Amino acid sequence: MKNFKLVPILLIAVSTVFMFSCKKSKAPTPTPTPAPVNANPPFSWSENGGTAKTTSNVSFHASPGIIQAINSDNLTVIQILTHTSSPGTYPVSTNIGDVDFHYTMTNYTGTSGSVIITSNSNGKISGTFNTSSTSGVFSTVTGQFTDITVQ
């Protein structure tokens, strides 16, 4: 009978030893997802068909309808006064009421071309531009703006 009382105590002791001696497996650490590379920067342009330049420091102010692209030195590079935020094609010229296009770093003023606002939805505006000029260092400046927040 004495041995019979010892059996449950031994079973409990052996079970306890096995419970604490089992190796616990850790949950696998998830691999972080890398940030996506923005294949379409918010604002890009090229001079005379050259290599594209980009900036992510760009804003659109609905009133008066102006896009401002700013470079890494915090200087305004390009200003496009559209007078509107509605999708459509708008002429670039020096005439009052048309789109005013200025590339301030080079004294370039667009005298012909167009700004095409392709969309303005969900608080974002997108489009393209192409301009020509006889003033400044370049004869053409072309580019695009993608999903710029409307302010």
Largest sheet: 6 strands, antiparallel
Compute the average pLDDT: 82
Classify the secondary structure makeup into a structural class.
Answer: mainly beta
Globally, the shape reads elongated
Please work out how many helical segments DSSP would assign: 1
* pLDDT < 50 stretches: none
Order of helices and strands: HEEEEEEEEEEE
Counted beta strands: 11
Q: Give the percentage of residues in beta strands.
A: 35-45%
Radius of gyration: 32 Å
Widest sheet, order of strands = 2-1-11-10-9-6
User: CA-to-CA gap between the ends?
Assistant: 88 Å
What is the share of helical residues? Answer: 10-25%
Features:
elongated; 1 helix; 11 strands; 5-stranded antiparallel beta sheet; mainly beta; 151 residues; 6-stranded antiparallel beta sheet
Provide the fold topology.
Elements: H1 2-21, E1 43-47, E2 53-55, E3 58-61, E4 66-70, E5 76-81, E6 88-91, E7 100-103, E8 108-109, E9 112-121, E10 124-132, E11 140-149
Antiparallel strand pairs: 1-2, 1-11, 3-4, 4-5, 5-7, 6-9, 7-8, 9-10, 10-11
Q: Mind explaining what this structure looks like?
A:
The strands form two sheets. Strands 2-1-11-10-9-6 form a six-stranded antiparallel beta sheet, with no helix packed on it. The termini are far apart. With 151 residues, the chain is mainly beta. It is built from one helix and eleven strands, in the order αβββββββββββ. The mean pLDDT is 82.
